[in-house]
Design brief:
- The complex is a heterodimer of chains A (about 300) and B (about 300).
- Chain A is built from 11 helices and 8 strands.
- With about 300 residues, chain A is an alpha/beta fold.
- Chain A has one domain: Aldolase class I (TIM Barrel, Alpha-Beta Barrel), CATH 3.20.20.
- In chain A, strand 4 (about 100-105), helix 4 and strand 5 form a beta-alpha-beta unit.
- Chain B has about 300 residues and is an alpha/beta fold.
- An 8-stranded parallel barrel of chain B has the order 1-2-3-4-5-6-7-8, surrounded by 5 helices.
- Classes of the chains: A alpha/beta (about 300), B alpha/beta (about 300).
- Chains A and B meet through helix 6 and helix 8 of A and helix 6, helix 7 and helix 9 of B.
Chain lengths: ~300, ~300
């Protein structure tokens, strides 16, 4: 099976109107922007898309916008993780029904389930749909709850539709263990980095990333991936360092600062829902200064 | 300015006699083995050498012996960590007087001082010796105290001999953040991989690697490091995965397994000192069987 999810994939933010309601028109423009600027796939709504701050109905409605607007130009996966597993299953079935290419799901929130509990969670989600599933490992946000080689092996033996893992441990030892185990069971299994930590992961077999900065600097993201794939280590390192500076800028109250930065880039996407703050004018001015110092304003597209 | 780039740094264990005294005759053989097997520098006594189980008097005597035996053939880096800043500083001063080329120091044992005092700890140890000073970050072993970029930048300002960071966190985000930010202030600042996960560390700028497992698979480690230093990381991936399988095997069996594995490879250095337990006969047999299953060990030398 050819890998469906690789390269620089974009997970758009969720545009909101001033009254904090969803802004589907701007969402369409944003999706189109990502596809035109090189996204190899779209995945929505990741945490960057404020998934947990949207109602289930809003998520379904905007998922339909995503699938319709992208219109098969690139694959679309829908992030179905919710506080309640019942909602996750509901979102997964909905994603399949509207024609999404895959679902993606993180380990369960809040609870600290056993490895057996995590296994059963993914089996249930994976078996609730016929479309492919991407698992999402993020131990830094869900402390202590994470994938290991044994879990991925068991899941791959059980779920033929588990085709990829978004790996966000950002750790060499963990990445290698998961990769060794997964590729032994399924050599075309795709491991994708969360955020653009590509320089350290591509040489270990990572096939792409879910971009954090794609709404700001899609050119930079693509240049980094290309340099990594070509083995241009020094170039990749310098681009990685630049993207790391951007990540430092935006990870604070993510995605509030990212949305603030998109205003500077001429692609306003509105406020951020509570409990996350919205970037203040002062914060936006700071971001503008940082983007200028990094040369982003001269090298990246402005406007839609 | 520090001009030392340690390269491939072997970290020998401390051999013990049956009555758990330092076995200097064996240490002599062991150092010669490491020097013959590709060590470009020696770092001692690291945790793998049970530094924490050696008295201060033993550490100094041990260091004297190493310096005499190595006799200038490669640089020797002295690990001086302690709970007390004064003891670590005194040990650093001593190591310098005996010809050490660099000092290595972790965060203080046991205590979890505030950031300002962690800085003070490192600054005093660095000041005690004028030679290159490396901070050793090993959060899995020293879970109480975290390092960050701000602390490293403070140390750059306070300590002209602060030469670099030895990272055993394997955390890409951490490594990238430190090296990209600190090198803007001190371009010669080095990142060293604190273990054999060199592909990712090298890809983000590490030029040196500390290796306990050179005692088991010196040829593999030498070849691997050589490929990494030419930045052919795709080529290094298979070796990285082999090394990771050995790393995980030893990790699974616990600290005492390194000496047990050395015994299996025909390089007996005794057992670990209490409070560490030696491997049970059953565990030893399992380790031996597993090691025999690692085909890449077939090309490694047995015995001294």
């Amino acid at each position: 099976m050819t890998q469906m999810f690789k390269g620089v994939m974009q997970s758009p933010v969720t545009p909101l109107k001033d009254d904090f309601s969803p802004d589907p028109k701007t969402f369409e423009k944003l999706l189109d922007f990502h596809v035109r600027t090189g996204a190899t796939a779209i995945s929505w709504p990741h945490h960057k898309g404020e998934s947990l701050n949207l109602t289930i109905d809003e998520r379904k409605s905007l998922a339909e916008v995503a699938v319709k607007s992208v219109a098969k130009r690139v694959p679309v996966s829908i992030h179905v993780s919710a506080l309640s597993v019942e909602d996750s299953v509901d979102l997964a079935k909905h994603a399949q029904q509207i024609g999404a290419d895959a679902i993606i799901a993180i380990t369960p929130y809040f609870w600290s389930p056993s490895m057996e509990g995590i296994f059963k969670h993914y089996v249930r989600l994976g078996q609730s749909v016929d479309i492919p599933m991407i698992a999402y490992n993020s131990p830094s946000y869900l402390e202590g709850i994470e994938f290991n080689g044994e879990l991925i092996t068991r899941l791959l033996e059980k779920l033929p539709n588990l085709i990829a893992l978004k790996e966000a441990s950002f750790n060499s030892e963990k990445f290698v263990e998961i990769s060794r185990a997964a590729l032994k069971v399924r050599p075309d299994f795709a491991i994708v980095a969360g955020v653009e930590f590509l320089a350290p992961s591509v040489p270990l077999g990572c096939v792409g990333s879910y971009s954090s900065a794609g709404g700001i600097s899609p050119n930079l993201c693509t240049q980094l991936f290309d340099a990594c794939m070509k083995g241009e280590s020094e170039k990749a390192r310098q681009l990685q360092f630049k993207l790391a500076q951007l990540w430092d800028l935006f990870r604070d109250q993510y995605p509030s600062s990212l949305k603030g930065g998109m205003v500077i880039m001429g692609r306003p996407v509105g406020p951020t829902r509570a409990p996350l703050p919205t970037a203040t004018p002062e914060r936006q001015a700071f971001i503008a200064q940082q983007l200028e110092e990094l040369g982003i304003l001269d090298t990246e597209p402005h406007g839609w | 300015m520090n001009t030392l780039i340690p390269g491939l740094v072997h970290t020998p264990v401390t051999p013990f006699t049956d009555d758990l005294k330092i076995d200097y005759a064996c240490l002599e053989k062991l150092l010669e083995f490491h020097l013959r097997s590709g060590a470009q520098a020696i770092a001692t006594p690291m945790h793998v050498a049970e530094s924490v189980s050696l008295s201060d008097v033993e550490q100094r005597a041990h260091f004297d012996f190493v310096m005499k035996q190595v006799n200038g053939r490669v640089p020797v880096l002295a690990h001086v960590s302690d709970a007390a800043t004064g003891v670590a500083a005194s040990r650093a001063d001593y190591a310098q007087s005996k010809g050490a080329r660099a000092i290595i120091c972790t965060t203080p044992y046991y205590w979890t001082p505030p950031a300002a005092m962690v800085h003070e700890h490192f600054a005093q140890v660095a000041k005690a010796a004028k030679i290159a000073f490396y901070v050793f970050y090993t959060p899995a072993e020293m879970s109480g105290t975290k390092l960050n970029t701000d602390l490293m930048l403070q140390l750059v300002n306070s300590s002209s001999n602060f030469a670099g960071l030895i990272d055993a966190s394997m955390d890409w985000q951490f490594m990238i953040n430190i090296i990209s930010n600190v090198q803007r202030t001190r371009p010669e600042f080095q990142l060293l991989s604190g273990n054999e996960y060199m592909v990712s560390a090298g890809a983000v700028g590490a030029k040196s690697m500390l290796t306990p497992m050179a005692a088991i698979a010196p040829q593999l480690i030498k070849d691997f490091f050589s490929v990494c230093r030419t930045e052919k990381y795709f080529e290094a991936r298979k070796m990285q995965e082999d090394i990771a399988s050995l790393y995980q095997l030893l990790k699974h069996h616990g600290f005492a397994s390194l000496k047990a594995a050395m015994h299996i490879m025909g390089r007996d250095c005794g057992i670990a000192r209490p409070p560490l337990d030696p491997l049970s006969p059953e565990s030893f047999n399992r380790l031996e069987k597993s090691l025999h299953g690692l085909s890449f060990l077939n090309r490694e030398v047995k015995g001294w």
